[in-house]
Amino acid sequence: MTMERRKSNPYRNALWITWATGLLLAVPQSLFAGDLATNAMWPGCAELGALSPLGWFDRTFLAYNVLLVLIATLAVPGITYFYVTHRKKEKLRRLRNDLNEKRWKENENAILKHVANQFRMRNYLGSLLTLTLIVLLGASIILLLKPVASQGPAYGCGVEYGIGANTLLLGPYLELFGTDSAAYYHHLLISLTAFQFGFLGAYVYLIGDVVRSYFTMDLSPRTFVASSVRIMTGSLVALVISFVTAHSSIAFYTALPAIAFFLGYFPETALVYLEKFVLKMLGMATEKPRAIPLSKLPGMSYFHETRLIREGYDNVENLVNARPLDLVLATGFSYRQMRQWIAQAWLCAHLGEQDYDDFSKCTGITSADELAQFIDPAAPNRPADPQEQLSAATQGRYPQKISVLCSLVGAWRERADRGLIA
């Protein structure tokens, strides 16, 4: 019992440290925000001082919103705590079943050390606290800080954003301050809507990513760092693009929440389109990337590609040089899946993007391992002349490449089986 309590104490201590630090950050921030909100209100709305926000909403509705903010803020720390304290054995069990006996014995000490370090709560504290604070601030803006127009308390109490609006919220429309109050407030609402729904889209992706990582044994501090960057990027990209789209027509204005949500959910896609749009406006030619994207590999989804990019493998050529076991320990992918993707990357990188699609379609061979097995002299159903059969299947379009591949794939397979790659 004593040993069990000692083992569990670090987890409890880490959890209390996380929550206590979060409260220490949240309470001063809330008081500061309440003070700013009070100062930004009309005198008739600020009679209760710091408690005046309690009068913005119906009490039941306010309590419901506060509960939503707490759930949204504490969901990720809660999932992380249960992951660290309950999923370590499952991670080791999957690794043990996925690796053969020889590979497990050769790497057992390194695997046990890596997994033990991976399931320490202290490794998550910095990135987790940063993400928790970002979510707290974003959820508070959406659910608690009610915006009001500049007509005074007769139109309801809340935060008068117009007083504190800056270039970030209004951009070139900041010149409307003091000249056209209606248009000024209209553009302010557009900016707030774009920013908040961009945040909401990134948050929905965050929850899906965290839950997915929990079940695939892939929840790491990098998940929280990437999510923090994603939330900030998605919110700001949605805000910037709203200056161009939502202010132009009523159609864009009504579709703004959906557009901003999409931009927050897929900020990388939004940045690519924004880059193309700006380059087209400036009349600059875009250089076609020479690297082959990971999406060309069979079975590679958007989530798989995003996860590999976090580990530094953002194209097929880079993935060729990866060590499967290293990626298995760093991610939630199985060894067989990782080995297959690297073998597919090897074949795709040597054939080229276009020829790889054609070669795979004509022959049914998608990876270096499959090619090595096809030409293996010891294979039971090996054809008399494998190279000739492959050339015939591809109608003789690239016999030189096939010849080179057949001469190189044996050495690659030997290195992989010897453990230099795996």
What's the gist of this structure?
The chain is an all-alpha fold.
Mean pLDDT: 81
Strand content: under 5%
In total, the number of strands is 0
Overall 3D geometry?
Answer: flat
Helix/strand order, N-terminal first: HHHHHHHHHHHHHHHHHHH
What is the rounded distance between the termini? 41 Å
Low-confidence parts, pLDDT < 50 over ≥5 residues?
A: 1-8
Summed up, the domain count is 3
SS-derived structural category? mainly alpha
Major sheet description: none
What's the topology here?
Blueprint: H1 2-39, H2 59-86, H3 88-98, H4 101-118, H5 125-143, H6 161-164, H7 167-170, H8 181-215, H9 221-244, H10 250-265, H11 267-282, H12 302-310, H13 316-319, H14 324-330, H15 335-351, H16 353-363, H17 368-375, H18 386-393, H19 399-418
Helix pairs in contact: 1-2, 1-5, 2-5, 2-8, 3-4, 5-8, 5-9, 8-9, 8-10, 9-10, 9-11, 10-11, 14-15, 15-16, 17-19, 18-19
Structural write-up:
- The chain has 422 residues and is an all-alpha fold.
- It folds into three domains: 1-39 and 57-145, no CATH class; 165-287, no CATH class; 325-418.
- It is built from 19 helices and no strands.
- Helix 5 (125-143) packs antiparallel against helix 8 and helix 15 crosses helix 16.
- The longest helix is centred in the first third of the chain and has 38 residues, at 2-39.
- It is flat and about 90 Å long.
- Residues 1-8 have low confidence and may be disordered.
What are its keywords?
422 residues; mainly alpha; disordered N terminus
